[in-house]
């Protein structure tokens, strides 16, 4: 049983309770026991005490879009290493995408993932089931059993639903089981064979481009289907300006849509691909300056609800090859905090908004606990040092894979202590109590 | 060229990496080597003891033979590996195969590969020099250089010429290298073809885009027709070869719109009657076979410049 922990003098940012001030937080029995003025909580015997002056104390971060690769591709990541990377990044919960091997399209895989997560235990794992059996886009997966087993949402992420009727039925049927439908918006006939963003750079490199309309057409379709069915939809990894305009307009109309982007879409442009840098190859691809600006704007104005990393571990042998054969995706759990903090430093976001995007809203969208430091809530907490500078190196990475375009970057801001249900999952050695 | 100029490239990956001086150096060297091929004993000892591997993942007759002839006329030892005979068909990756080749200490690997960027990938992983003999839809620098040489021979000066490149610009590494090379040398390049085969941002490489073939060739000094790859027909890029020939083929009428002294070029192999009227291909204005002859000279020059210095 986790003991008492007292977090002293930190800047507590808890948007749900409207708190942004220096407070002490007491944790007992895995729950938040008290939040009070500094110095007013008694230091009981055996209490682990941390002086967090200059640090932020926020609800544990929740990454609603990660690929943990287990079962099936344990050489890239396991639930143990993936949740450890999560903890190192300040995350206390992750939603695990279903494109494992086998696909998580049935309760057996969901139960396996949850059992492994209980064993590994560095973060809560919320399995996301497949929309279609085998993510083949033909038959609906067994949503009822997936839900019963513990899945919180369904998606065919990575193998997007091309068939509009199937997507419509998924939205309708998900309502019976209170499952969120997550859309990986990609019109495959337009993106087919593409390796990077469509445009002059793709032409210069001789790579086949993925036009932004490939995303936008499906964003529009899924917004239209959400409106038509009256069911909520969540749009994953939004990368283009026009997708954001469509989502903004749908929200104005009252469509039940939420949306996420990933740190790379507000940090990098397609120029990162130049020189055939497979570490910058992802799907959707990195876009243009105008898209980056639009993503930043949408994070500010509420068009985007969440920052999710799309953590996509790949081994060297999946990346060190011809560009258009290389795997899509980058790891993201350990760079989300510094990259988002960069927006805060540039006054694009305030700290409260950052916490909403990385914790409050993902919890709300997925319908899972967390996102708050309310007394009585599970003690899922991230302590962030917004000033801490470090160079992001392979050696520092907790994930099993090292595929990041941010290797070698000087970063500022880091999770220094992560607490999951009152148990320290990261940063035990960072402080002396 | 300034007197302190030196050709310093270890690899030949694309004309995008070449300066005007680099291109001039290759062309001058090629012009001086061309004469070797017309001797009765067509061999000089310049690259004796050098080992060159022709590593071809795509079918190629003329480029591969051209490199081999060039290397042999310079007395280098050459070896050919093709896709079907290589261990890549047994599942070995390009990098692994290349490392194994590199372990045999070749001086130069000449790579033809269907993936853009593969030549650079190879160069990043091995010690030997790499010459890109065509990587995907990226570049084919030796072809660009031999085309420059051919135009310079025919026209004297490249700067100020009007070059019209007609056809599949999107999938043509030859077009890319030519647009880069000719525009660097001061020519005005116009491309035309079905809009489905004009890639975005081609202007950034130095080309003007024209919707009309007739307009593109208007007053041109050089007409270059590109090969239509019939295997791309499953992608709906244009309705039929018949319609292509009618609206985008280089016909006598098209040629008549160009300068009366305009030369006709084609990188080969030609789909006769599709992208180029056979009469033009074989006519007096055609320099298509000179392109092939110059290919050997340009490749001798490249091999000499990257390996002959030591």
Helix/sheet category of chain B: alpha/beta
Approximate helicity band of chain A: 25-40%
| Main beta sheet strand tally, sense and closure of chain A | 8 strands, mixed
Radius of gyration of chain A: 21 Å
Strand portion of chain B:
5-15%
Oligomer: heterodimer
Global mean pLDDT of chain B? 93
If helices are DSSP runs of H or I spanning 4 or more residues, what is the number of helices of chain B? 11
The stretches of 5 or more residues of chain A where confidence is low (pLDDT under 50) are none
What number of domains of chain A? 1
Low-confidence stretches of chain B: none
H/E series of chain B: HEHEHEHEHEHEEHEHHEHH
Count of extended strands of chain A? 18
Structure, explained:
The complex is a heterodimer of chains A (433) and B (310). Chain A has helices spanning 79-88, 107-120, 143-149, 164-174, 188-191, 200-205, 212-229, 241-253, 263-267, 289-301, 316-319, 336-345, 351-366, and strands at residues 5-14, 19-28, 31-36, 48-51, 56-59, 61-66, 91-96, 124-129, 153-154, 180-183, 196-197, 209-210, 233-235, 257-261, 306-307, 381-391, 410-420, 423-426. In chain A, helix 4 crosses helix 7. The mean pLDDT of chain A is 96. Chain A is globular and about 65 Å long. Chain A has one domain (60-366): Metal-dependent hydrolases (TIM Barrel), CATH 3.20.20. In chain A, the strands form 3 sheets. In chain A, strands 1, 2, 3, 4, 5, 16, 17 and 18 form an 8-stranded mixed beta sheet that branches. An 8-stranded parallel beta sheet of chain A has the order 6-7-8-9-10-13-14-15. Helix content of chain A is 30%, strand content 23%. Chain A has 433 residues and is α/β, with parallel strands linked by helices. With 310 residues, chain B is of the alpha/beta class. Chain B folds into 2 domains: 15-140 and 292-307, Aspartate/ornithine carbamoyltransferase (Rossmann fold); 141-287, Aspartate/ornithine carbamoyltransferase (Rossmann fold, 3-Layer(aba) Sandwich). Chain B is 37% helix and 15% strand. Chain B has 11 helices and 9 strands. Chain B has helices spanning 20-34, 62-73, 94-102, 118-125, 141-155, 173-184, 213-217, 241-248, 252-257, 278-281, 288-307, and strands at residues 51-56, 77-82, 108-113, 129-135, 162-166, 188-192, 207-210, 222-225, 263-265. A 5-stranded parallel beta sheet of chain B has the order 7-6-5-8-9. The longest helix of chain B is centred in the last third of the chain and has 20 residues, at 288-307. The radius of gyration of chain B is 19 Å and the shape is globular.
């Amino acid at each position: 049983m986790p003991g008492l922990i007292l977090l002293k003098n930190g800047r507590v940012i808890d948007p749900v309770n409207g708190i942004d001030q220096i407070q002490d937080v007491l944790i007992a029995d895995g729950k938040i026991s008290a939040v009070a003025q500094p110095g007013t909580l008694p230091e009981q015997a055996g209490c682990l005490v941390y002086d967090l002056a200059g640090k932020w104390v926020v609800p544990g971060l929740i990454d609603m879009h990660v690929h943990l690769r287990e079962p099936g591709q344990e050489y890239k990541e396991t639930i143990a290493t993936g949740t450890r990377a999560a903890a190192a990044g300040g995350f206390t919960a992750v939603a695990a995408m279903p494109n494992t091997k086998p696909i998580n399209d049935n309760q057996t895989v969901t139960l396996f993932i949850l059992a492994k997560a209980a064993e590994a235990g560095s973060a809560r794992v919320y399995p996301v089931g497949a929309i279609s059996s085998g993510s083949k886009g033909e038959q609906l997966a067994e949503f009822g059993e997936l839900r019963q087993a513990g899945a919180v949402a369904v998606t065919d992420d990575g193998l997007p639903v091309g068939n509009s009727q199937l997507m419509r039925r998924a939205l309708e049927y998900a309502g019976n089981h209170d499952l969120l439908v997550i859309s990986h918006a990609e019109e495959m006939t337009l993106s087919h064979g593409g390796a990077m963003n469509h445009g002059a750079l793709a032409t210069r490199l001789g790579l086949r481009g993925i036009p932004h309309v490939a995303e936008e057409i499906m964003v529009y379709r899924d917004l239209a289907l959400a409106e038509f069915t009256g069911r909520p939809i969540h749009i994953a990894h939004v990368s283009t300006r026009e997708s954001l305009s469509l989502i903004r307009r749908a929200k104005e109309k009252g469509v039940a849509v939420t949306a996420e982007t990933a740190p790379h879409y507000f940090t990098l442009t397609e120029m990162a691909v130049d020189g055939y840098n497979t570490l910058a190859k992802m799907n959707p691809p990195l876009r243009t300056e105008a898209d980056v600006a639009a993503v930043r704007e949408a994070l500010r104005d509420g068009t985007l609800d969440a920052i999710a990393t799309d953590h996509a571990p790949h081994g060297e042998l999946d990346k060190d090859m011809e560009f258009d054969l290389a795997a899509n995706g980058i790891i993201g759990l350990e760079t989300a905090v510094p990259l988002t903090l960069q927006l805060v430093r540039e006054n694009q976001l305030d700290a409260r908004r950052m916490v909403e995007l990385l914790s409050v809203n993902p919890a709300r969208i997925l319908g899972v606990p967390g996102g708050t430091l309310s007394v009585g809530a599970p003690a899922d907490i991230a302590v962030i040092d917004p000033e801490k500078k470090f160079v992001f190196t392979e050696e520092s990475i907790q994930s099993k894979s090292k595929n990041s375009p941010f290797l070698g970057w000087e970063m500022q801001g880091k999770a220094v202590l992560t607490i999951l249900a009152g148990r320290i999952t990261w940063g035990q050695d960072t402080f002396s109590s | 060229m300034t007197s302190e100029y030196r050709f310093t490239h270890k690899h030949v990956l694309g004309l995008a990496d070449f300066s005007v001086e680099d291109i001039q150096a290759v062309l001058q060297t090629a012009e001086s080597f061309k004469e070797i091929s017309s001797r009765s004993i067509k061999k000089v000892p310049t690259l004796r003891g050098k080992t060159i591997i022709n590593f071809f993942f795509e079918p190629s007759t003329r480029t591969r033979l051209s490199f081999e002839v060039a290397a042999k006329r310079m007395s280098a030892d050459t070896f050919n590996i093709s896709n079907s005979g290589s261990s890549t068909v047994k599942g070995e990756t390009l990098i692994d195969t290349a490392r194994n080749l590199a372990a045999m200490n070749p001086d130069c690997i000449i790579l033809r590969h269907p993936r853009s960027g593969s030549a650079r990938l190879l160069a990043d992983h091995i010690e030997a020099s790499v010459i890109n003999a065509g990587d995907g839809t990226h570049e084919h620098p030796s072809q660009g250089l031999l085309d420059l040489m051919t135009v310079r021979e025919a026209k004297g000066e490249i700067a100020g010429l009007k070059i019209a490149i007609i056809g599949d610009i999107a999938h043509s590494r030859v077009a890319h290298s030519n647009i880069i090379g000719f525009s660097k040398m001061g020519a005005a390049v116009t491309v035309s073809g079905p809009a489905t085969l004009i890639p975005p941002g081609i202007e950034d490489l130095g080309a003007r885009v024209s919707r009309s073939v007739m307009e593109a060739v208007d007053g041109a000094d050089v007409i270059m027709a590109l090969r239509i790859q019939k295997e791309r027909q499953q992608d709906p890029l244009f309705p039929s070869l018949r319609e292509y020939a009618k609206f985008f083929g280089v016909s006598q009428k098209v040629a008549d719109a160009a300068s009366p002294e305009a030369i006709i070029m084609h990188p080969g192999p030609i789909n006769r009657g599709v992208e180029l009227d056979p009469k033009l291909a074989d006519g007096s204005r055609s320099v298509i076979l000179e392109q092939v002859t110059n290919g050997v000279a340009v490749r001798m020059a490249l091999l000499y410049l990257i390996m002959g210095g030591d």
